[in-house]
Amino acid sequence: xxxxxxxxxxxxxxxxxxxxxxxxxxxxxxxxxxxxxxxxxxxxxxxxxxxxxxxxxxxxxxxxxxxxxxxxxxxxxxxxxxxxxxxxxxxxxxxxxxxxxxxxxxxxxxxxxxxxxxxxxxxxxxxxxxxxxxxxxxxxxxxxxxxxxxxxxxxxxxxxxxxxxxxxxxxxxxxxxxxxxxxxxxxxxxxxxxxxxxxxxxxxxxxxxxxxxxxxxxxxxxxxxxxxxxxxxxxxxxxxxxxxxxxxxxxxxxxxxxxxxxxxxxxxxxxxxxxxxxxxxxxxxxxxxxxxxxxxxxxxxxxxxxxxxxxxxxxxxxxxxxxxxxxxxxxxxxxxxxxxxxxxxxxxxxxx
Length: 352
Fold this sequence. Notes:
about 30% strand, 7-stranded mixed sheet, Aminopeptidase
């Protein structure tokens, strides 16, 4: 597979003699190889992607802020666009998922311009990357998700690019565009910035692997399953749970998800392992957590706080309910096999 990517950085500005974003761009080769960022958790191998890289170092003024959007207007086409910028106050890199429609410059740009509370559009623009899929697992990346790209030229550039993408393309055909704010040299390095950049390009271009936590709530020799009442999974049964948020582990994710989806308070007891599942548009890294309710079992007929399900059921056999989502039936079968084992690792916490 081959792809073409545009990466931009900025020249130094204000009292800065360097700008790590522009310095990084200067080090990039015209041709790069990007590997699968999910290779350690994906259940199969995917070939590397050959990248043809276009780069620009933008001026810190209105002309630099408009350059990428003008390139798009004149027919520029890329499989992804990544803007890089300096964030002096950042302790770690920030993955910006929102461009604001306001400029409020605390300092002058390189042309002497200083706009205060100045509107640049009627609405804010979200990043066109599929952030719900590609940012469910942060692996070893020390970076933050942010919805505030500031109100200086970085944000102006991001806004102009996203605005143009929305103007010239339709839903489902929009060029993925992302802004990365990089800390200054006292906290970060060009080498680390390049690793982050390649990881982000990989996340955008490869079929994503979604890390999901699912809760197996056990009582005596029974387990609790839930029936979905939304979307393409309507009527299907599952171990309830959901996607990891950036920075979460599986235990944190399942506690949060069951609180959000049912208003249940649970504790995570132990892992029942990882299960890999392929779908058409993404793959699933399913993390099964053995859970218990904290204190007493809630009223399972009280459904007003449920967000995605319409029924739950204690079962003693995986075939007691209808069709499951994905590989949840196989998981249920393996759980019952463990429950029936006299020397089960579950002994001691499944009663009550």
